[in-house]
Specification:
With 95 residues, the chain is of the alpha+beta class. It has one domain: Peptide Deformylase (Alpha-Beta Complex), CATH 3.90.45.10. The chain is 31% helix and 20% strand. The chain is built from two helices and four strands, in the order ββαββα. A two-stranded antiparallel ribbon has the order 1-2. It has a two-stranded antiparallel sheet with strand order 3-4. A hairpin with a 2-residue loop joins strand 1 and strand 2.
Length: 95
């Protein structure tokens, strides 16, 4: 998957989103992430990235994931709280 995005009037292209989550200590996690302009969120490229990130949530049975965890240095994250997770929190913290 190739990601193209604009940040501060610079076009960055050719970044490939990983199909795995990088681990703590990876220097990629120390790269300053660039903001995503609001008008770009509905664009095809960012939407494809969001779909990829959602598939990664399922693959790793995760609650959240940021773009930089898959090698894309932009300020974007996805979260998904499934019913089984809601039940866990309800039982753990309400009782």
């Amino acid at each position: 998957m190739f990601v193209i995005f604009v940040s501060d009037n610079k076009i960055l292209e050719g970044l490939t989103a990983y199909s795995h989550v990088i681990q703590i200590g990876d220097p990629t996690l120390r790269v300053k992430c660039q903001p995503v302009k609001p008008d770009m969120i509905k664009g095809n490229t960012i939407q494809k990235l969001i779909q990829h990130m959602k598939s990664m949530l399922s693959k790793y049975d995760a609650v959240g994931l940021s773009a930089n965890q898959i090698g894309v240095p932009i300020r974007l994250f996805v979260i998904e709280v499934k019913k089984k997770m809601m039940m866990f929190f309800a039982i753990k913290f309400i009782t």
